[in-house]
Amino acid sequence: MGPKATEKKRKVQDAEPESDDEIAPDFDGALSQSEDEFDSDFDDNEHEQDGEQESGSEASDDEDEEGSLLSDDIPSDAEGDKAMGKLVLEDEEEELEIEIPGVDPKRPEKDDGDKNYRVEKDANGNERYVYDEIDPVYDSDDSDAQEAPNTIGNIPMSFYDSYPHIGYDINGKKIMRPATGDALDALLDSIEVPKGWTGLTDIHTGNPLNLNDDELELVRRVQMGMIPNELENPYPETVEYFTGIEEKMPLSAAPEPKRRFLPSKNEAKKIMKLVRAIREGRILPYKPPEEREKEEEEEEQYFDIWQDEVPQEVNPLHIPAPKLPPPGFDMSYNPPAEYLPTKEEREEWEKLDPEEREKEYLPQKYDSLRKVPGYGEIVKERFERCMDLYLAPRVRKNRLNIDPNSLLPKLPSPSELKPFPTVAQTVFRGHDGRVRSVAIDPTGVAVASGGDDGTVRVWELLTGRQVWSVKLSSEEAVNTVRWRPAKDSFILSAAVGEDVYLMVPTHASVTPALDQASRDILSAGFGYATNGQQHGAAPGKEPPAKWARPGAKLEDEGVLIRITVRSTVKVINWHRKGDHFATVSPSGQRSSVAIHTLSKHLTQIPFRKLSGLAQTASFHPLRPLFFVATQRTIRCYDLQKLELVKVVQPGAKWISSFDIHPGGDNLIVGSYDKRLLWHDLDLSIRPYKTMRFHSEAVRQVKYHRGGLPLFADASDDGTLQIFHGKVPNDQLENPTIVPVKVLKGHKVVNKLGVLDMDWHPREPWCVSAGADGTIRLWM
Amino acid sequence: MDHPTESGAQVRVTFTTQEEDIQLDESKRQLLVPADIRRYGLSRILNSESMLDTNSIPFDFLVNGSFLRGSLEEYLNANGLSLETNITLQYVRSLIPPTYEASFEHDDWVSAVDVLSATSPAGRWSGDNFQRGQDRILSASYDGLLRIWDASGNVIGTSPSGSHGGHTASIKAAKFLSSTQIASAGMDRTVRVWKYTESGESYERRGELKPILELYGHTSSIDSLEVDGASKRILTASADGSIGFWTTSKASAPEVSDSSLLPGAHTSKRRKLATSVTAAQRGPLALMNIHNAPATAAVFDPRDRTVAYSVSQDHTVKTIDLTTSSVVSTFTTSHALLSLAALPRSSASAPLLACGTSARHITLVDPRTSTAATSVMTLRGHANKVVSLAANPENEYSLVSGSHDGTCRIWDLRSVRPATKDEGGMGSVSEPVYVIDRESQQGKKKKSSVTGDGCKVFSVVWDQLGIFSGGEDKKVQINKGRGVNAE
């Protein structure tokens, strides 16, 4: 019923516009809705009546038929009642229809207009219009209502083009054409666009036509072919008036009527009718076989889509019929000699699979045309041509023939960049729990490691034999171990909690002289101790660190000095000369970075304020520069002038570690967001190259210090990646960075993989500390 | 696969050899043999009356530089040759597989092994003093003890511990000087010379090790030791990069020049070592600081005992003239070198030096300066650092290598092929003839991804008594080592 009603509604609208225009040209939009509503209601009523009338007549027809066909059957009472009910309704609605014209609002308006005044004769005998008294009811005064400002009606505005005014208002006054600004004003207007500015002019008022947001939205929706009114839901929720759900407790407890169990007589009647018709031959249930075949044949019709093709301009939508190229010289029966294939070409052509041949033929030379034999491939070629036309593609494919390999940058193959570590050759077992840090001593013979079990161990590098061990703490883990870089001593530093220990491993292969020299270096500062503390802090203030002997038990093991700072130390980095070392405690707020002087037992805190949490710090390998990494940036300070030199911004979210190239101009940064970044310090503060090859956080990055162009990173995904990173001597050239090897072997334990790594001082070997409790030597 | 020659196709072969005593007559060298014949069949033919008329010498056959492993026909097919090709077969006495014989259990890792037998150098040096049948095996362990074993696996003697005049740290190398003298060196930087005496009946003999000399001079762990019993000289290589040259005679050895090296030189050292037995303390004849990375091995020239060769982690092989303590020549290789063995050559004046590298192979170096190519051959096959090498005492062309991958491999230098592109494309390459696995790892599940984890071989010695190897599995393993000479 719905669609039909709207159809009708449209028809009504189409038929009506003349009258609408006449009455109120200006209220077109405003009123149309209410009128529509009214119309639709009206139509609905009409239509319903029609429908009901039809259905009613059908029902009666049916009944008639029923009666005629099965005269012995009496229609049931219920059915009869229903039909009666319908008829009653019909009547009522007819009554309604009679009333409807009275509701029409157009007609009374006109009538009222006529009766609004009386025509009387005045004293002079002239006609006099006597208006009725205005009854001051609620809507008698329409002065508030907006009225059409221009009364000229629906005429082309061009009539007023030559006049200074554009029409008349309700009082007969001229509506002057608003002054149009000159070009400059227009330009200024267009620059300062007021809200809702459209650039259009309302033809009736001559004012600029401004649209508010709602109107714009309306225009947009109309343009997009959507329903103009946003609030109107075209798809309302269905209301299930009649539900298919069977109630457990039906409203009526009446027993099922008998007729529900009996076969429908009405249907039986219809079927009988058909049966009779088939018997008499009026209806043929199947088509005769010949006819069916014919139909099937007819179905397979093909159309030549290029049947009436006219030559046209090339455009992307038009697909021309596939066309054979014109024959070339090589197809000639007597081609020039250079087109004839050489023996090798012929052999090569014959060797190829027919499908892979570039050309399906070979140019051949004949003395005269009559000697040319019949073309053997003609049938095949014609067939293929037909297939081409038949299977012509509807879409033109533009294939990009680029070899994917050519897009990769040209890098030397890893095998040319040997040597670099490739396999694990020694496993150092012994640590209980994670190994957090590992370091190879400056001579390249011993490996030191520290782990969660609170021990520091020293191992023989090649065999993996543990040669020394000390337990520094039973609760806290050894966070980092680092060797003092100078070769004149055998000093190991280790950080456990807030303590930094300096020790001389009592290793049998250390000569007494070297052992003594190392002890002397460590003890030398005790003479300065008091002075140093006074320098380090003002009186009354807590000194930044306490240098002390760790106690006889540890001293026996070779641990000689304990430095207690204010918070947990995570990083130790030595200056190359071995007199200074920096410690970083990320949780230490103001005192997070400390520089310790071994010869004076002095601790200084260089930064009173740091922007961000310090992660790690390192000395420049050649110049008196100091690098401090916070979570996002690396700051470079000049230690002599005491000023900030540079801020490097790797763009990583959380820096885990960095290392400075032994040449001093390059920097690698590892970050917890899985990245490894190469910085050229001279070039930019931004990374020169970003490498995102790990699936987990990068924990440690290290350059090889023994002159080999290698660097490596250790990651929580249990792998180390080895890179070839050659820094050219020429300043203008860029460094060559080639990933050469992924070293797999460490197991991932609790999402931690490789926690630290270190390079051998000379050889292309490296050691790695794993969360799986092992240290591995890769070579 | 079809075998067209089952009908009995024949191949023409030419037998050649380089061994003088088993040469064939000129007329007998060419022969038609069935194509499906194998090594055993060919060996039978050669041993038959009409050919060599010997009593079953097992032969191996070299075809074009590699050993014949299948039938002749398979060889021809694999190389794409026709059956009509004339094949030149070089026959050599075959190596017998080094079957496992025994293991001696230790308390700690075994770092070095040496053997005293009639045929071993120490046995020869002791001359008549050595009694036949009293074969002794010396093992040095990381627990700092030397042990002397008899051939049936009983410990006859043990060196005293550190507090009683023994090594104060792990021993890394030990050798018999003679049947009564032993030299050892280790992480405690000292070389110790021991007097070894035996007493008691043959079934319960007890041996006693008495320190007679402590040699000081090295400033770091001594990784390798080589002795010459005839001239009573010792050669050591230390991690401090120096090569030491020592004598075992108390009288001729110089005094220790640098007293700071002696234990107890600094009173501040907390743990003083109370030594009840004091041996004489002496210094080196010469200490040559010639390497700038840890020196890993030094050996005497097998012929000329005044010449020594040393290798180091600084990639170099150096020839040293011991009389002047000067370096004669230096050869640089491309990898850190960890072990050295001199293979005597009858054809040339200088031996061939086999150097085990950290890059898992063995490089053969010709130390003569006149030769164009220093690296003669590369032996590939190990999966880890090659830390020990020993030449076959019976011939010039085979050697055994011990590696941290837990295997000993036997190599035959006659079997060579040109190097492939992957291997550098230079020189020639050989592959092992036999691989000796650690018996202790038999049947154990491989738990580590690193080869040789837990069963590294630290030392290997080849004597006619057998191939002795000691390793991380705390065992000395003995494999049959008597190869060629069956008589």
Automatic annotation (TrEMBL), chain A:
Q: WD repeat boundaries?
A: 428-469, 754-779
Record's keyword annotation contains Nucleus: yes
* Entry-linked SMART domains: BOP1NT, WD40
Primary subcellular site in the record, as a coarse category = nucleus
The signal sequence is none
Query: What compartments host this protein?
Result: Nucleus, Nucleolus; Nucleus, Nucleoplasm
Bias (Acidic residues) occurs at 15-25, 34-67
Query: Residue ranges of the BOP1 N-terminal domain?
Result: 160-421
Keywords, in A-Z order: Nucleus, Repeat, Ribosome biogenesis, rRNA processing, WD repeat
Name the segments for region: Disordered: 1-124
Quote the InterPro entries the UniProt record gives.
BOP1/Erb1 (IPR028598), BOP1_N_dom (IPR012953), WD40/YVTN_repeat-like_dom_sf (IPR015943), WD40_repeat_CS (IPR019775), WD40_repeat_dom_sf (IPR036322), WD40_rpt (IPR001680)
Give me the stretches of Basic and acidic residues compositional bias: 104-124
Q: Which domain of life is it from?
A: Eukaryota
Q: Does the keyword rRNA processing apply?
A: yes
Gene3D superfamilies named among the record's database cross-references: YVTN repeat-like/Quinoprotein amine dehydrogenase
- PROSITE patterns assigned: WD_REPEATS_1, WD_REPEATS_2, WD_REPEATS_REGION
Q: What is the documented function of this protein?
A: Component of the NOP7 complex, which is required for maturation of the 25S and 5.8S ribosomal RNAs and formation of the 60S ribosome.
Subunit structure of this chain's protein:
Component of the NOP7 complex, composed of ERB1, NOP7 and YTM1. Within the NOP7 complex ERB1 appears to interact directly with NOP7 and YTM1. The NOP7 complex also associates with the 66S pre-ribosome.
Q: Which family does it belong to?
A: Belongs to the WD repeat BOP1/ERB1 family.
| PANTHER family assigned to the protein according to its UniProt record, in alphabetical order | RIBOSOME BIOGENESIS PROTEIN BOP1, RIBOSOME BIOGENESIS PROTEIN BOP1 BLOCK OF PROLIFERATION 1 PROTEIN
Q: What is this protein called?
A: Ribosome biogenesis protein ERB1
Give the originating organism.
Neurospora intermedia
User: Taxonomically, what lineage is the organism?
Assistant: Eukaryota, Fungi, Dikarya, Ascomycota, Pezizomycotina
Q: Which gene encodes it?
A: ERB1
From TrEMBL, chain B:
Q: Which residues form the signal peptide?
A: none
Member of which family? Answer: Belongs to the WD repeat WDR12/YTM1 family.
List the PROSITE patterns: WD_REPEATS_1, WD_REPEATS_2, WD_REPEATS_REGION
Gene3D superfamilies in the record: YVTN repeat-like/Quinoprotein amine dehydrogenase
Which regions are annotated as WD repeats? 164-204, 215-256, 379-421
- List the SUPFAM superfamilies hit by this protein, alphabetically: WD40 repeat-like (SSF50978)
The record's subcellular locations are: Nucleus, Nucleolus; Nucleus, Nucleoplasm
Q: Which PANTHER family match?
A: RIBOSOME BIOGENESIS PROTEIN WDR12, WD40 REPEAT PROTEIN 12, 37
Under the subunit heading, UniProt states: Component of the NOP7 complex, composed of ERB1, NOP7 and YTM1. Within the NOP7 complex ERB1 appears to interact directly with NOP7 and YTM1. The NOP7 complex also associates with the 66S pre-ribosome.
Q: What does this protein do?
A: Component of the NOP7 complex, which is required for maturation of the 25S and 5.8S ribosomal RNAs and formation of the 60S ribosome.
* Keyword Repeat attributed: yes
Q: Give the main location.
A: nucleus
NLE domain residues: 11-76
Alphabetical UniProt keywords: Nucleus, Repeat, Ribosome biogenesis, rRNA processing, WD repeat
Name of the featured protein = Ribosome biogenesis protein YTM1
